[in-house]
Amino acid sequence: MDYFLSEEQQMIVDVARQITDEMIIPQRAELDETEGYPRDILTAIAKADLYGLYIPEEYGGLGGGCFEIVLALEQFARGCTGVATAFAASALGAYPILISGSEELKQKYMPAIASGEKLAAFALTEANAGSDASGIQTTAVLDGDEWVLNGTKQWITNAGEAQIYTVIAITDKSKGPRGATMFVVEDKDPGFSYGVKEKKLGIRCSSTRELIFKDCRIPKDRVIGRIGMGFITVMKTLDQSRPGIAILGVGLGQGALDEAAIYAKQRVQFGKPIISFQAVQHILADMAIQVEAGRALVYSAAKHIDAHKNDMSKASSMCKVFATDMAMKVTIDAVQVLAGYGYMRDYPVEKMMRDAKILQIYEGTNQIQRNVIGQELNKEYMRA
Amino acid sequence: MKIIVCVKQVPDAKDVRLDPKTNTLSREGVQAIMNPYDRHALEEAVRLKEQHGGTVTVLSMGPPQAEAMLREAVSCGADEAVLVSDRAFAGADTWATTYTLAMAIKKIDDFDLILCGKQAIDGDTAQVGPGLAERLDIPFVAYVRKINNCIANIMQVERLMDDGYDLLEVPLPALFTVVKEINEPRIPSLKGKMRAKKIDITKLTAVDIEADLEQLGLKGSTTQVVKVFSPELKGARAILAGTADEQVTQLYDKLLPLL
Questions:
Q1: What pLDDT, in 10s, does the model give residues A298-307?
Q2: CB–CB of A14 and B193 under 8 A?
Q3: B103-148 pLDDT, tens per residue?
Q4: Pick from B186, B187, B194: which is nearest to A11 by CB?
Q5: Which of A184, B76, B85, B235 has its CA at a distance of 20 to 30 angstroms from the CA of residue B249?
Q6: How many C-beta neighbours within 10 Å does residue A267 have?
């Protein structure tokens, strides 16, 4: 379907598509097998200026918004959700600085993130703080001109690969939700190290590790926004970033549909290509309907977010739930169309099915998203 | 460093058909692309610019449609683009082409290095690079697989050979043709694409380059394509059998009378 993209937006799609077709798709099976980090692909993405898509021009970016990064991510995810995740994680790590950071912090960190010279990562999750972010145990204590961080962050995407980490820690336990603060930690800060690389079901080429802070000392001016505003920054960051996860579902779903349709045209059974059988056509038709519906919702949500900075939560959560649940279903269907061959690692659809699962889990489980949507509805109808 | 890269638009090899009647390439409906070897020459020029500073100018002789290819070259890092285009150039062989390009380069005047692909995938002659260097009377190296350094206007390059490589030092200005081993061409950048859309492409005609009309196009060509055909394979073939020693003996017996 034609979404009437501007000329610049179409260029974003074209550049991202070329990287996907020429670099990501040829490498994805090996990256999945070896669990290697896709450095050369990310370098190509940086050279193509795509790390700066959503960053204002005054910080070295291209001045686009949520919609622009969504267009690039859709292409990458069509090739490999792992690569797309590794790319998107830098934006997630950068948003807290962009949303709440001081002018000095933005000037200091954003240009290198915009050029792709440095990668960022976002650190919220801990062993006892997942859906319930209030369970955070990492602490930060002011000691003279330095903050001292202690604790462990878990399942951090881009850990060990990024140079800039945005980390939430408790600065005053007595204040509850107002007692958390976000900081910038750099890879070379003393007392900061990484845990082992996790072994995952899917998105295996993206790096997922622990961040370990043992008396990690950082300068006082690394606070993002005001002290005690950490949770607000986190919530705004996730509202902004979730369409980026939603669109991974759309790209992945499209990739699965492409594989299934091409296979169904080639595979002959009972003397005919299986695409001529209604049983297969109906599966493909349902896949196509869902992918297109997902795309339409994510595009609309991204445009809404770009236009309404103070009313993002519901649109953001709705598109994340719909498009990622869709990706799970569509990839399972793609394996069904390819049947025995689809179950084998010689074809890409089993990887797509494994990759899809994380989309329903990370950046807030789809159950948590439904809570957000429910709470927003409750507010809306209270006014009515 | 001022670098000129000569690029040619060719039919996409994935999509080439022969006209069964005339035995010539059928260009109808075939997508035109930048000659793949020229893409490597362009990439090398852009890398040299990134390393040493300077400018990259892409130059092409071709029909007006070649403008699209030149814009693509700009999106991949070229700074300027020049299209030499005139009906008088039609039907040029490599002799007339090198004359035309040489006249255009004399018009541009200022350069330290000219890079070309080792050959174009349509004509496959590999003559335009060396011919152009002769016309301009500058040093020339073919099959360059690596540019090592450039110190005091002397460039050290590796020339790919069948059995290894030659290490050569060449004073600038010079012309090199490059092989695909030299680099991995980049994907166009977003800023490059935006620039490519807006850039004014310099267009030069036969009059602009002050060319002698007698030396242009079909009139100026010293070769004519009379017929294109696949040569028939002639000669008897024999497959030897037996142990390695027996086969060597048989081969020796067959070859001996030929000496």
A1: 999 999 999 9
A2: yes
A3: 999 988 889 999 999 999 888 889 999 999 999 999 999 999 999 9
A4: B194
A5: B235
A6: 16
